[in-house]
Specification:
Elements (H helix, E strand, L loop, with lengths): L2 H22 L8 H11 L6 H12 L4 H22 L9 E2 L2 E2 L1 H4 L2 H21 L9 H13 L4 H11 L6 H11 L1 H13 L6 H28 L2 H4 L5 H4 L5 H24 L8 H12 L3
Antiparallel strand pairs: 1-2
Helix pairs in contact: 1-3, 1-4, 1-15, 2-6, 3-4, 3-10, 3-15, 4-6, 4-10, 7-10, 8-9, 10-11, 11-14, 11-15, 14-15
Length: about 300
Amino acid sequence: MSSATIETRMRECQQRIERVLDGLLPAAATVPQRLHAAMRYSVLGGGKRLRPILVYLTGEALGVDAAVLDAPAAAVELIHAYSLVHDDLPAMDDDDLRRGRPTTHRAFDEATAILTGDALQVLAFDVLAHATAPQGLAGAHLQMIRVLAQASGTAGMAGGQALDLAAVGRHLDLQSLEEMHRRKTGALIGASVAMAAACAPALAPRLREALDDYARDVGLAFQIQDDILDVEGSTADLGKQAGADAARSKPTYASLLGLEGAKARAQALKIRACERVAPLGENARNLAALAAYVVDRRA
């Protein structure tokens, strides 16, 4: 599949999730207006939408109706958006720019940004809890709630962020660096695939395991490419401050392995991710193409 084809499919998924998120978020005119405006600003401000795309493409590969996937796709993006709002705060990464715009705490204020993250996190689970379960999928929503909660907590994203903050100014070996990023970045990417798989209860265990392995490889490859782009990319292309990791003395794949070593590691993960989903046959062509896109992207 050509990059143009996967990019077209990605845009279709992006357009779908934008409509879903717009309908789920409270109207900015509804009390409390400032908080609701900040929530909409934080979520609808662009972005790759990689996690919802993974939900849709995984479900597509398994024959799951897209309407069933709207709730998990929205929920994982709401969790991701909340994490970005909180990560950007002065107490964390203290960033001024996100997706080419002022970060939420700069556009509004710190207190509103904290509440925005809190509200987005709660909304994610509300979306999953209240989604209509199609016939035969009564247990899927509980499973998706469990998956997303685990991926968001100390064993996943929040724990990874804690490790990331503790690593500033320190040297990490490769195993420690990968453990940090498998939690901070990889956990939600894994949850995206796992939630879609939960909507296919008849899926063979070996294929479910293959999808989990695929998600782990894609999640790590995504982070490695992020580290590379932080060195090679521009602020205009990235929509956030380039060179921020080095400025904060953060350990990265580029600093540990060198740029060429990091690129080789990302390419190896891309190849392995494609091999993971090969048992799904032609149905997995978009998942394989997405793994290639993640590594070859320039922003």
